[in-house]
Write a structure and sequence with these properties.
Structural class: mainly alpha
Number of helices: 4
Distance between the termini: 24 Å
Radius of gyration: 18 Å
């Protein structure tokens, strides 16, 4: 997060206190989900399903790519999806 984004979020929290409550709720939920992820052990079938999902996502991303264009956003989206599949 850039410094500008941090300043804007701080200003929003000062003017709208409900934002800080929502952020703290999301942080608590993220901590709980992270602890649940650590307890789950990957299975061969689960790994295969994740690999197939990622392959389909890569094919769909490739269909949206622009030849000789800036496809950085598509690459980031695919990377984020891959990280999300690793966490499952």
């Amino acid at each position: 997060m850039t410094e500008f984004q941090k300043v804007v979020i701080g200003l929003l929290e000062m003017s709208h206190p409900e934002i800080s409550r929502v952020r703290s709720q999301f942080a608590a939920e993220a901590t709980q989900s992270a602890s649940r992820r650590r307890t789950l052990k990957p299975t061969p079938i689960g790994n295969a399903v994740s690999a197939v999902k990622f392959a389909i996502a890569a094919l769909l991303t490739g269909s949206r790519a622009i030849p000789l264009g800036d496809n950085g956003r598509l690459t980031r989206e695919l990377g984020e999806y891959g990280n999300q599949l690793k966490g499952c």
